[in-house]
């Protein structure tokens, strides 16, 4: 059982509300005023047409970097846009200092298209272990939080993922084909079988929240960027769910995972999905 570093536990007891305030303020100042108001010059492509960045992403991350760093002296911030500018920033996840992992707008494509299905993700990590997370869907004014060993909540109400109803097809949100290798496509194709109903994923953070709420049975993802997964992995865990790579190992925020991986409502569902992914990998060989 992973235990807290005492100073981090004390910090969370004293300042969790301050982190929530920082997340809400960043969204209110930099994200929501641009929602459905973006000009063309405020949108750019990174690696391709499905990988977008906006002024809202950049400015919200800049604000969160300042506010979160000030809340916990000695901590470092690993944000998606900072890593895009300097990949070496990502190495801090492997270090000894507490790390804030930030995705300022998870679901930028949805944000750009005026779809409210986006969120801001913040996770406090130490030694590669997620200790607390905040998932804020600003357009819906929903805030999900998780603290390791203390449960998951949505707007203050406890979350329990529960088990899927027997006999019903499992609904699984999967990676967009544009972000998968040929081998990963074949692995994910293992989900196209009786009793499973795969569909393309939207915002990863909101898909994880749907799993934690028991509205979605599992996710199956083929990439491991920590800003997309750290908050959701902890949220699902604390709601009673589980996560596994296709080789049967828990997903590691620090990377080096066998991909694809799954996070699911309960351990049995995670094992079933991981087995189907593993079968797809076998077919790829």
Automatic annotation (TrEMBL):
It comes from Streptomyces zinciresistens K42. InterPro entries: Inositol_monoP_metal-BS (IPR020583), Inositol_monophosphatase-like (IPR000760), Inositol_monophosphatase_CS (IPR020550). Mg(2+) binds at residues 80, 103, 106, 228. Its EC number is 3.1.3.25. The lineage of its organism: Bacteria, Bacillati, Actinomycetota, Actinomycetes, Kitasatosporales. One of its GO terms (biological process) is inositol metabolic process. It is an enzyme of class 3 (hydrolase). One of its GO terms (molecular function) is metal ion binding. The keyword DNA damage does not apply. It catalyses: a myo-inositol phosphate + H2O = myo-inositol + phosphate. This is inositol-phosphate phosphatase. Pfam families: Inositol_P (PF00459). Keywords: Hydrolase, Magnesium, Metal-binding. Its cofactor is Mg(2+).
